[in-house]
Write a structure and sequence with these properties.
The protein is of the alpha/beta class and about 260 residues long. The protein is built from 6 helices and 13 strands.
C-alpha cells in the first residue's frame, strides 16, 4: 500500500496533464494542489497531447524549458513529462503524489487506453509514485466546462484517498460530471465501463480530390452498465475507479497452460 505523510501539507506534489502547460485544467489542478500542500511542482507538455496514450518520444530529442520556479514544459508527451520530472528535475526528492489533469473532457470506459491524462498517472505508478488522474466531463456538443465542479470537489476527495491509501501498481481515475457544483450528487467507486462503438468516422474530399478522414464521436453512451464510471457520471455522480496496471487475465492462465502443455 502507498503511504502518505500524516499531513498532506508536508507532502510534495507533481502536477502534469495532456492538454498542455497553458491549459485551463492544469491551472485548476495547480490551485487544488496548492490547497493540499506547499511544495507543488509542475511539468507538462508544451502543447496539447490529448489521445497520446502511454507513449514515449524515442526518435527525436526532448527539450525541457523552465518557465518559472518549479514550473517546466516538455516538448513531448505526458509520459515524457513525468519521466523527466522524476528522473531529472526531482531525482533526489521524488514527489509523494502525482496529480494529472484536470482534463477537459471525461476519461471513462475505454478512454483510459487512449488518454494522455491517465497515461501520465500510469507512468508515475510504474515508477513507484502514487498517482491520480482527474477529468471534467463535458457533454457532447457543449462548450461550457464546469471547472468549479472539479476544483471544489477534488481537494476533499484527494485527502480521503490519501488517508485510506491504495495498493502499489494501482492508479486512481476520477471523473467529475457535467454539472454545476451544487448539482453533483456525490461520489462513488465504479468499475471501468465500456461503450458501444458508433459510426461517426467522417470521410471528406480535399481540394485536390483526395479523401481524408475526421475521427468524430465514435461511442454511444445511451445505456451504460450499472455501477460503471459511465453510469455514475451520467447520473450526476463523481466516479472513482482504481485502475490496475497488470493487464494479465489470470483466470485464463490454467486453461492456456493445459492447452500448451
Amino acid at each position: 500500500m502507498y503511504k502518505f505523510p500524516a499531513h498532506l501539507k508536508s507532502a510534495r506534489i507533481l502536477v502534469t496533464n495532456d492538454d498542455g502547460i497553458n491549459a485551463n485544467g492544469i491551472k485548476v489542478l495547480e490551485r487544488v494542489a496548492r490547497e493540499l500542500c506547499d511544495d507543488v511542482w509542475v511539468c507538462a507538455p508544451e502543447s496539447e497531447r490529448s489521445g497520446a496514450g502511454h507513449s514515449l518520444t524515442l526518435h527525436r530529442p526532448l527539450r525541457l524549458r523552465q518557465i518559472s520556479p518549479k514550473r517546466y514544459a516538455v516538448s513531448g508527451t505526458p509520459t515524457d513529462s513525468v519521466l523527466l520530472a522524476l528522473h531529472h528535475i526531482l531525482p533526489n526528492h521524488p514527489p509523494d503524489l502525482v496529480l494529472s489533469g484536470v482534463n477537459r473532457g471525461g476519461n471513462i470506459g475505454e478512454d483510459i487506453t487512449y488518454s494522455g491524462t491517465v497515461a501520465a498517472a500510469m507512468e508515475a505508478t510504474l515508477l513507484g509514485v502514487p498517482a491520480i488522474a482527474l477529468s471534467q466531463y463535458v457533454g457532447v456538443g457543449k462548450s461550457k466546462v464546469h471547472w468549479p465542479t472539479a476544483e471544489t470537489n477534488a481537494p476533499l476527495l484527494i485527502r480521503k484517498l490519501c488517508k485510506t491509501g491504495w495498493p502499489n501498481g494501482v492508479l486512481i481515475n476520477i471523473n467529475f460530471p457535467d454539472l454545476a457544483v451544487g448539482e453533483v450528487k456525490g461520489a462513488g467507486v465504479a468499475d471501468q465501463g465500456q461503450r458501444q462503438i458508433g459510426e461517426n468516422l467522417d470521410r471528406r474530399i480535399d481540394p485536390r480530390g483526395r479523401p481524408y478522414y475526421w475521427i468524430g464521436t465514435l461511442r454511444n453512451d445511451a445505456s451504460p452498465r450499472k455501477g460503471t464510471d459511465l453510469d455514475l457520471v451520467a447520473s450526476g455522480h463523481i466516479s472513482v475507479t482504481p485502475v490496475h496496471l497488470n493487464l494479465t487475465h489470470r483466470p485464463s492462465i490454467p486453461g492456456l497452460r493445459k492447452a500448451l502443455a
